[in-house]
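Hi R.,

As promised, here are both runs. First protein below:
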Amino acid sequence: MRYIMLVVWSALLVSTLNYVVSSINNVPLDGPAFTKGLWMSLVFSVLILVIDAVLPKDSPKEIGHHE
């Protein structure tokens, strides 16, 4: 469920950004531009998953904690 919501939110946010930027530049938001935005959201989702996998899960206090 976590991964599904990541893809959904990524698609919503990137599509919103795509709409706003195309409106500012006075460019129509047609099929190919919208599709490129969806592909970018998938790339963004994969990048977030890779960053999540690389970062350590322990808090800084637990990593350096010695008793």
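And here is the second one, sequence first, then its structure tokens:
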Amino acid sequence: MRFIPLALAALTLAAPAIAQKKPAPGLVRVQIVTSEGPITLALETRRAPETSKNFLAYVDDGRFDGAVIYRSAKTKNATQYGFIQGGIRTDARRILPPFKHERTDRTGIHHTDGTISMARRTEPNSAGGNFFITLGALPSFDAKGDFPGYAAFGHVVGGMAVVKRIHDGATGGGMGGQMLMKPIRILSAKRLDGPTKPTGLVKPWLIKK
């Protein structure tokens, strides 16, 4: 890819959980639980249907469970701008077929603060099981003219503090020194709205040798 609340003191009796409101029509929430805490996303299933469908297939199949967030790209002048990147990396056992690239100048979803988007190779239809979450606006990732951009398809609605904490992690190694020295584990990824729709495909990464 070229170039993303402190707990209150415990009480004697736990307070009842506050029910979360249902998202607006066309949004489906997903919670990614990492070793640094949970991140909740709202996916734009109407404006970016193909990209959202692909991401939800990875979620519903459990293909992100046990994966990692492995990259933190920071700007030179501010640590709170850039992105974190995670997913299946190059694990061919987890990958699903490619899908059509959805340009931001057609979906209307731009790379603002807290946007989730798909990592890809050079060619537009090469995104798969790797994603990034932005910190700050990154308009250079939006489609413009002959540049297809990256397929933004949702935004963070909870856990942005977790995203920032991951982003602050020490980096080095490849990708211009952007690889996290201690990758963050993705413990689970689950949809919070609507029924799950697993692909039914074989899960070879679960088969023990």
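A quick note on the second one: Confidence is low (pLDDT under 50) at residues 1-19. Let me know what you think.

Best,
J.
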